[in-house]
Amino acid sequence: METALDVRAMESMSVGFQKARIILTAAELGIFSKLVAGPKSAGDLCEAYGWDLRGLRILLDALAALELLKKSSESYSVEPRLYGALDPNSDESILPMLLHRARMWKSWSNLTSIVKGDFDMGSFVKMDRSRNDIEAFIGAMEVVGRKRAMRIAKDMNLEGRKNLLDIGGGSGVYSLALLELNPNLAATLFDLSLVIEITRERIARTKFAHRISYVEGDFNTDELPTGHDTVLLSAIIHINGRERNRSLFSKAHQALEPKGLLIIRDYVMDESRISPKDGAVFAVNMLVATREGNTYTFREIYEDLILAGFRNIKVIRVGDQMDQIITALK
Ligand SMILES: C[S@@+](CC[C@H](N)C(=O)[O-])C[C@H]1O[C@@H](n2cnc3c(N)ncnc32)[C@H](O)[C@@H]1O
Predict the structure, then answer these.
(1) Which of 37, 102, 132, 274 is an S-S bond match for 24, by CB 3.0 to 4.6 Å?
(2) Is ligand 1 within 6 A of the CB of residue 47?
């Protein structure tokens, strides 16, 4: 009985790609955005965008069968309960995340070749990312972060601390949560230049604009700005191999004043490396998207922090999402 169930569960996992692809293609074609604006038939859409009528009808019917769209006669609309999530102009929109996942689909397709060792990761990783790709990525970070940044930030005690350096700050969603919780804190976001350009525009529209400054750079090759009492590495260490992390920890150490606090948010794997389960799956995401990325155990992170000169290294938050926190002191 148990075996039958296990096989069924595995079969269901193995076919999950079909529904995922249907949703990702709808997002890539902008179908949700177009239908949020008002109901349309397959004919209307094909006439407006020159798409293939047979293909679109089949796709729209599948989306309706999955209860993501509503079909009434020949007209399709977005299910009302999904309006906020699928409206590109809503604060709740998950569209940037879907577009980011559509991009991830391409890298996941290389998994077999990567594991066989006959994939040229160099050319793939070096591939220039367009502004659209980066906007989708930043938007996705914000969608994922928005839900949990405030919850996680509440466990980061920054009492008395004044200037945070957020390395690879991305959309700034963690800095914003920390600024909200700590009225005397200012933050510096350090990230690649195109990311800073996009994030600066987004943050300019928020009430925190005057408390955030920006530094463009590459944390692998550039020095980090110094004189901070707190440094945050949120969802960064999984991008790197251990050697690069050691060098990044050393740069973070230099960026900190004496008694400065380093905060790491990431998956922290147990010694088996299969728990948390999502961390093991996320490591595959890093395998297909980076040259050296992975998820790390506490022992590995601890050893690398010690080598960089940190002390008093503690896990201050546990969890099975990317919501664990490690802190260390200079
Ligand atoms: C997974 S995102 C995390 C964003 C943010 N810290 C958060 O938790 O939402 C990784 C960030 O690191 C940045 N990044 C990656 N490699 C970098 C590098 N070499 N130098 C500077 N930033 C980098 C990316 O642009 C991206 O914004």
Answers:
(1) 102
(2) no
Closest CA to 325 of 259, 246, 233: 233
**Architecture of the 147-329 domain:** 3-Layer(aba) Sandwich (3.40)
Beta carbons of 171 and 138 less than 8 angstroms apart: yes
pLDDT band at 120 (very low <50, low <70, confident <90, very high): confident
Three-class SS state of 328? strand
Report the predicted TM-score, pTM, of the whole model to 2 decimal places: 0.92
Q: Which band of pLDDT confidence, cut at 50, 70 and 90, is reported for residue 124?
A: low
Mutate which of 203, 231, 239, 248 for ligand 1 pocket (most atoms within 8 A of beta carbon): 239
Task: Give the start-to-end residue ranges of the domains of the chain.
Answer: 2-83, 147-329
3-state secondary structure of 275: coil
Q: How far apart are CA 164 and CA 188, in angstroms?
A: 6
| CB 236 less than 6 A from any atom of ligand 1 | yes
**For residue 276, cis peptide bond before it (omega within 30 degrees of 0):** yes
Tell me what pLDDT residue 147 has: 72
